From TrEMBL:
It is an enzyme of class 3 (hydrolase). It comes from Cupriavidus metallidurans (strain ATCC 43123 / DSM 2839 / NBRC 102507 / CH34). This is Thioesterase Protein. Keywords: Hydrolase. GO terms for biological process: acyl-CoA metabolic process; fatty acid catabolic process.
Length: 157
């Protein structure tokens, strides 16, 4: 759709085209956010978080996912943790500037010193009030660490 037609302030007659938004996949459409759960984190990406195409950087999402996942890990470890592994990461749908992005983080496994957390991410398209899309799924492992940054045995649950 042309956004700027040939005008006196556009002597070259340039036509600016609004990028098409990718179609939402039906498998990832959910009518509402997960019920009975509180997000670990909710945040709205800003224009500085976008790439040249106007979509939010994957790296920004990864950073937020790491932060969200660390919250239940720190609680379970009752102290500091370090991210030892990103086991899986799936970007199912894009995130746009201005979306309200919610990160749900749940511990799925604990070991002697490690805590594995599943993080699910949903974007609420603020320009389309009822549209909520699952955008990312990830699994990360954190290790409880001591003051010397060495692995620490988890306290009793
Ligand atoms: C995290 C860290 C302290 C772990 O030390 P380590 O000597 O490698 O630890 P270990 O080999 O004893 O493993 C510790 C736990 O992590 C788990 N682990 C190690 N590598 C793993 C991997 N690739 N995937 C999943 N779990 C892993 C181990 O199974 C173990 O779990 P358990 O005790 O519950 O059985 C160390 O690797 C480190 O400092 N890494 C850098 C952390 C960091 O800076 N993260 C920020 C990103 S840059």
């Amino acid at each position: 759709m042309p956004r700027l037609s040939q005008r006196s302030d556009n002597p070259a007659g340039l036509r600016f085209i609004r990028p098409e938004r990718p179609a939402m996949t039906t498998s990832s459409f959910v009518p509402e956010l997960p019920s009975g759960k509180n997000p670990a984190l909710r945040v709205v990406p800003m224009p500085a978080d976008a790439n040249v195409h106007g979509d939010v950087f994957g790296g920004w999402i990864m950073s937020q996912v790491d932060m969200a996942g660390s919250i239940p890990a720190v609680e379970r470890a009752q102290g500091r943790v370090a991210t030892v592994a990103v086991n899986s990461f799936l970007f199912k749908n894009p995130v746009f500037v201005g979306d309200l992005v919610s990160f749900y983080a749940d511990i799925v496994k604990t070991g002697r010193t490690s805590i594995t957390v599943s993080v699910e991410v949903y974007a609420q398209r603020m320009r389309h009030a009822n549209e909520i899309v699952k955008v990312t799924e990830a699994t990360l492992t954190y290790v409880a660490t001591d003051e010397s940054r060495q692995p620490r045995v988890l306290p009793a649950a």
